[in-house]
TrEMBL record:
UniProt-recorded name of the protein: Aminopyrimidine aminohydrolase
The species this protein was found in: Salinicoccus sediminis
GO molecular function: thiaminase activity
PANTHER family for the chain: BIFUNCTIONAL TH2 PROTEIN, SI:CH1073-67J19.1-RELATED
E.C. number(s) listed in UniProt: 3.5.99.2
UniProt keyword list: Hydrolase, Thiamine biosynthesis
Residues in Thiaminase-2/PQQC domain copies: 10-218
Amino acid sequence: MNSQFTDRIWKRVEPLWNNYLEHPFVKGLGEGWLEEEKFRHWLKQDYVYLIDYSRLFALGSAKAHNLATMNEFSKLLHGTLFMEMDLHRGYAEKFGISREDLENTGAAATTTAYTSYMLNVAQRGSIEHVAATVLACAWSYNFIGLKLSQIEGALDHELYGNWIQTYSSEEFTDLAESCKQLMNTLAEDKPERELAELEEIIYKTSMFEYMFWDMAENMETWPVKES
Ligand SMILES: Cc1ncc(C[n+]2csc(CCO)c2C)c(N)n1
């Protein structure tokens, strides 16, 4: 098979993504010792992150040049709003966080920066820019889920087993593959200048992914609290 754009991307992001596996939040999830308070913080921030992130798939549908691409983006939108956010709603119920509290979480600085960056790039750009903004998110969680699922006992952990099962599942592997395929199709025949631009978007969102783990680990909101 010809070399694909995502093969080039993998070479660029792999060293950065390996840092996720060493991050204390991700290590704690995989080894089962992550403090619940930190997981709760991630859960609430991630819920509001996913609300804005879903808009990217809607933008992808709107900017698509053909029905097949429209359909791919609409499937990803549905998968996020129902499958992925159901995981969060299930955890919230377990933790006694009401649906209203979950939905009304104030986005932290990192969450705001990350979603604003993606929405800005996607709104200003074309369909391939939208595909580039969503790629690292869907692919890197699947990468992490699959790695953590190899840790003995991780899939059966009372609290975090469900998280690892979800992100390593066939459904989520398929969602990540759809995002990769979309990116490859849209990158076909593009000149190097445009490919380099898409690569930078994917690298930056990968860096934001690391910052999101840091935000959860340190339970960050904004640097100065209202008095
Ligand atoms: C910060 C952050 N980054 C990535 C994901 C994972 N994710 C986002 S969309 C998608 C594809 C299908 O829903 C996946 C796997 C997350 N939850 N939170």
